[in-house]
Specification:
This protein is mostly helical. Helix content is 56%, strand content 10%. The protein has seven helices and three strands. The longest helix has 16 residues.
Length: 129
């Protein structure tokens, strides 16, 4: 089973609310509403204040400054409010730091040594079952 979902399912089994955030989908929706402050705050606020946030495929695809700024807003809020984040990402830890040191370093610090990295194409369960 996909590890971040397995963790989320276990939390939900114990009555802990987990909000799933598909990175590409969410970032697109947030950017589409950036000019509507009320709607922007409503959408981004869900991710900022969720009891537990599962970010799936963080920084998948091409990344803009806007994408980084939005993720910083979410991650920074959660960092300063000690709110947990579960992240799946195809990038290595060092790559996250290269994309944006502020976002990457906060995620790394929040993980407190609980980073699990799987490497290799054979681990893609969609292709190799």
């Amino acid at each position: 089973m996909y590890l971040p979902l397995a963790i989320s399912n276990k939390l939900m089994d114990n009555c802990v609310g987990v909000l799933y955030m598909s990175y590409r989908e969410a970032i697109t929706k947030i950017k589409q509403n950036v000019m509507d402050n009320e709607e922007y705050e409503r959408i981004i606020g869900r991710y900022k204040r969720a009891k537990v946030l599962l970010i799936d495929d963080l920084f998948k695809g091409s990344i803009t400054k806007s994408d980084i700024n939005i993720m910083f807003e979410i991650v920074n809020f959660r960092y300063f409010n000690n709110l947990p984040v579960i992240v799946s990402c195809e990038r290595e830890v060092e790559e996250l730091l290269d994309i944006d040191e502020a976002v990457g370093s906060r995620l790394i610090e929040m993980s407190r040594g609980s980073v699990v990295e799987f490497k290799g194409r054979k681990l893609n369960y969609r292709v190799y079952g």
